[in-house]
TrEMBL record, chain A:
It catalyses: a quinone + NADH + 5 H(+)(in) = a quinol + NAD(+) + 4 H(+)(out). It is found in: Cell membrane; Endomembrane system; Membrane. The lineage of its organism: Bacteria, Bacillati, Actinomycetota, Actinomycetes, Jiangellales. It is an enzyme of class 7 (translocase). The keyword Ion transport does not apply. Coiled coil: none annotated. This is NADH-quinone oxidoreductase subunit N. Keywords: Cell membrane, Membrane, NAD, Oxidoreductase, Quinone, Translocase, Transmembrane, Transmembrane helix, Transport. Its EC number is 7.1.1.-.
From TrEMBL, chain B:
The chain crosses the membrane at residues 6-22, 29-48, 60-83. HAMAP family: NDH1_NuoK. It holds the Pfam family Oxidored_q2. Keywords: Cell membrane, Membrane, NAD, Oxidoreductase, Quinone, Translocase, Transmembrane, Transmembrane helix, Transport. This is NADH-quinone oxidoreductase subunit K. It comes from Jiangella asiatica. InterPro entries: NADH_UbQ_OxRdtase_chain4L/K, NUOK/Mnh_C1-like. The gene is nuoK. It is found in: Cell membrane; Membrane. The keyword Oxidoreductase applies. Its EC number is 7.1.1.-.
Length: 508, 99
C-alpha cells in the first residue's frame, strides 16, 4: 500500500494558516501574559500576510491536491486571497485598543460572570483575551479550505473548522455580554442543527454515487440518468446546510440576532468572510458535482433567491438597530449573489467572485464605522442616535454613506459594478424574472440606505447624542482601505473584473 | 444483507433528533438531539459503505465522531457560560435579541 502524496507547495497557504493557529495555542500556554497580546497579533498578521504572498505566487495553478480532496484552482485561489485580505484588515479591528480605554472589544475572560468581582479585578489589571487570535486563525483556515474542498468529507470538515471558532468568538463581547452570549448560543444551536442536516444530505449523495469526490459524483450523475429520490433528498439537505451559512431565506433567522449580539469587529469579519467562503463552496458543489442535475436544483434556488431578496430588503425597512439593519441588508445581498448562481451561465462564476469581493470589503468597513460611534454604554447602535452625525463628524458620516451607497449599488461605487455583473450573468443565463425581482428589491433596499444617509446629514443631532471616538491606527487604516477600495473598484473595476474572469474556471 | 432496515432506522433517528431540536426548550436536550442527528448520519454512511463495498463511508463516520466531540467541547462551553449568567439553560429565556 502506497502512502498518499501531498502537494506541499500548492497547499502551503493552508498549512501556513493552520500551523500558525496551532503555534498561537502554544503561545497561550508558554508566553508570559504581558507579552502575549503583542506576540499573538504579530504572529497572526505575519501568517496571514505570508499566506497571501503564497496565494499570489500560486496564481494560475490548476490541480487537485491532497489525494483529490482539495482543489487548487482559480475560484479557490481568488476567494482565499480575498478572505486573507479581509482577515488581515479584521485582525486590525480586533487589535483596536483605544476605544475601550486600553481594552479591546473582548471580555478579559469570557468565562467570568458579567459584572462580577472577578471580572472587575481582571479589567482593572488590564487583562486582554488573546485567545481571539488563534481562534480567528482557525476560522480563517476553515474559510480558506471551504471553497477549495473537492470532496464531501473535506467540505464537512472545513464547514466545522470554520464555524466552531466563530461560535466562541460571538460570545466574547466586553460590553453587553448577555446579548453576546445569547447570540453565541443561538448561532451554535442553529449552526449545529444545520450542519447535522448537511451531513445527512451528504450521506444520501454518497449512497447514490458511492464516492465522495466531486468529479466522480458528477460522473455518476451522467452515468445513470434514472433520477433517484435518494439523490434529490441528498442535494436538498446539503443545500439547506449551505444556505444556512450564507444566510438565505428561510434559513436566515439567526443572522440578525447573531450580527447584533456579537462583538462588532467579529460581526464584520463573520459577515464578510463567512459569506465568501460559503458561496465559494456552494458554487463549486453545485457546478462541479451537481452540474448534471441543474434542471432539478434550479427551481429550488429560484424560489430561495426571490424570497431572500424580498425578505432581506423589506424587513430591513423596519429595523431600528444599525447592526440589525446591516444584517438584513447582508441577507438581501445573499439573494443577489444567488441570482447569478441560479443562472449558472459561463460568466456567473466571475460575477459572483467580483460581487463577493466588493461586498466583503464594504461590509467590513461599514461594521468598523459602527464601532466608532459610542456613548456611555459602549457602541450606540440605535438608529435614532445616529441623527445628525454628519454635522458632528462629517468625515465619518461621509465614509459610512459611501459604504451604504455601495450596498445600494449607486454608480461610481463598487456595489454598482458588482450588481451589474451579477444581474447581467443572470440575464444571460435566462433568469430574467429573477433580475426583475432583484431590481425591485434593490430599489426597496436603496430606500432604507438613503434613509440612514438623510438621518445622518439632514436631521438635528440629539443633545445627549453619541460621540465619535478617535480610533488608533488599526481601525483608521482599515476603514480607509475599505473606503478607498469601494471607491476605486467603482471607478476602475476593470483589473479586478479581468482577474475574476481569469479565475473563474473550476478544475474538475 | 439488505440495507433498507438500517436506512429506515437512520431516517427515524434523524427525524427524532430534528423534532427534538425544534420542540425541546432546554439547550442541553436540543444539543443532544443534534448529536442524535449526527449519529443518524453516521449510520447512513456506514450502511451505504457496506452497500457500495468501499470504505469511504466508514472513514467519514470516524471523522464525524471527532467533529461531534469538538462540537461538544464548544457547545458545552457556551451553554455552561450562559447557564452561569442566567441560572437557566432554557432557550426561551434567551430572548433579549428580538425584532
Amino acid at each position: 500500500m502506497n502512502a498518499p502524496t501531498l502537494e506541499y507547495v500548492e497547499l502551503a497557504p493552508l498549512i501556513t494558516v493552520f500551523g500558525a493557529a496551532v503555534v498561537g495555542v502554544l503561545i497561550e500556554a508558554f508566553v508570559p501574559r504581558r507579552l502575549r497580546h503583542l506576540v499573538q497579533v504579530a504572529l497572526t498578521l505575519l501568517a496571514l500576510l505570508a499566506a497571501l504572498v503564497q496565494i499570489i505566487l500560486l496564481a494560475g495553478t490548476e490541480l487537485v491536491g491532497a489525494v483529490g480532496a482539495v482543489a487548487v484552482d482559480g475560484p479557490a485561489l481568488f476567494l482565499q486571497g480575498t478572505i486573507l485580505v479581509l482577515a488581515i484588515i479584521s485582525v486590525g479591528f480586533f487589535a483596536e485598543r483605544r476605544l475601550e480605554g486600553g481594552g479591546d472589544a473582548f471580555a478579559p475572560a469570557a468565562s467570568s460572570l458579567p459584572g462580577s468581582e472577578e471580572e472587575r479585578v481582571l479589567v482593572r489589571q488590564g487583562m486582554l483575551q488573546t485567545e481571539v487570535y488563534p481562534l480567528a486563525l482557525f476560522a480563517v483556515g476553515g474559510m480558506m479550505l471551504f471553497p477549495a474542498a473537492n470532496d464531501l468529507l473535506m467540505l464537512f470538515i472545513a464547514l466545522e473548522v470554520m464555524s466552531l471558532p466563530l461560535y466562541l468568538l460571538c460570545g466574547m463581547a466586553r460590553r453587553r455580554r448577555l446579548l453576546s452570549q445569547e447570540a453565541a448560543l443561538k448561532y451554535f444551536l442553529l449552526g449545529a442543527f444545520s450542519s447535522a442536516i448537511f451531513l445527512f444530505g451528504m450521506a444520501f449523495v454518497y449512497g447514490y454515487a458511492g464516492t465522495l469526490r466531486f468529479g466522480e459524483i458528477s460522473e455518476a450523475l451522467t452515468a445513470n440518468l434514472g433520477q433517484d429520490g435518494i439523490l434529490l433528498a441528498g442535494v436538498g439537505l446539503m443545500a439547506v446546510g449551505l444556505l444556512f451559512k450564507v444566510g438565505a431565506v428561510p434559513f436566515h433567522s439567526w443572522t440578525p440576532d447573531v450580527y447584533q449580539g456579537a462583538p462588532t469587529a467579529i460581526t464584520g469579519f463573520m459577515a464578510a468572510c463567512t459569506k465568501l467562503a460559503a458561496f465559494g463552496a456552494m458554487v463549486r458543489l453545485f457546478y462541479v458535482a451537481f452540474g448534471g442535475l441543474r434542471t432539478d436544483w434550479q427551481p429550488m434556488l429560484w424560489a430561495v433567491a426571490i424570497a431572500t431578496m424580498l425578505v432581506g430588503a423589506v424587513v430591513a425597512l423596519t429595523q431600528t438597530d444599525i447592526k440589525r439593519m446591516l444584517a438584513y441588508s447582508s441577507i438581501a445581498h445573499a439573494g443577489f449573489v444567488l441570482t447569478a448562481l441560479v443562472a449558472a451561465d459561463s460568466s456567473a462564476t466571475a460575477a459572483i467572485l467580483f460581487y463577493l469581493a466588493t461586498y466583503g470589503i464594504a461590509t467590513l468597513g461599514a461594521f468598523a464605522v459602527v464601532t466608532l460611534v459610542r456613548d456611555s454604554g459602549g457602541e450606540a447602535t440605535h438608529l435614532a442616535k445616529w441623527a445628525g452625525l454628519g454635522k458632528r463628524s462629517p468625515l465619518l458620516a461621509a465614509t459610512f454613506a459611501l459604504f451604504l451607497l455601495a450596498f445600494a449599488g449607486i454608480p461610481l461605487t463598487s456595489g454598482f459594478v458588482g450588481k451589474l455583473s451579477v444581474f447581467t450573468a443572470a440575464l444571460d443565463g435566462g433568469a430574467a424574472p429573477l433580475v426583475i425581482v432583484g431590481v425591485i428589491a434593490s430599489a426597496v433596499a436603496a430606500f432604507f440606505y438613503v434613509r440612514v444617509i438623510v438621518l445622518m446629514f439632514f436631521s438635528d443631532p440629539a443633545p445627549e447624542g453619541p460621540t465619535v471616538a478617535v480610533p488608533s491606527l488599526w481601525t483608521a487604516v482599515g476603514i480607509t482601505l475599505g473606503a478607498a477600495a469601494t471607491l476605486l473598484l467603482g471607478v476602475v473595476p476593470g483589473p479586478l473584473l479581468d482577474l475574476a474572469q481569469q479565475a473563474s474556471v473550476f478544475v474538475r | 444483507m439488505s440495507p433498507t432496515p438500517y436506512l429506515v432506522l437512520s431516517v427515524i433517528l434523524f427525524s427524532i433528533g430534528a423534532a427534538g431540536v425544534l420542540t425541546r426548550r432546554n439547550a442541553l436536550v436540543a444539543f443532544m438531539c443534534v448529536e442524535l442527528m449526527l449519529n443518524a448520519g453516521n449510520l447512513a454512511f456506514v450502511t451505504f459503505a457496506r452497500m457500495h463495498g468501499n470504505l469511504d463511508g466508514q472513514m467519514v463516520a470516524f471523522f464525524v465522531m471527532v467533529v461531534a466531540a469538538a462540537e461538544v467541547v464548544v457547545g458545552l462551553a457556551i451553554i455552561v457560560t450562559i447557564f452561569r449568567t442566567r441560572r437557566s439553560a432554557s432557550v426561551d429565556d434567551a430572548s433579549l435579541l428580538k425584532l
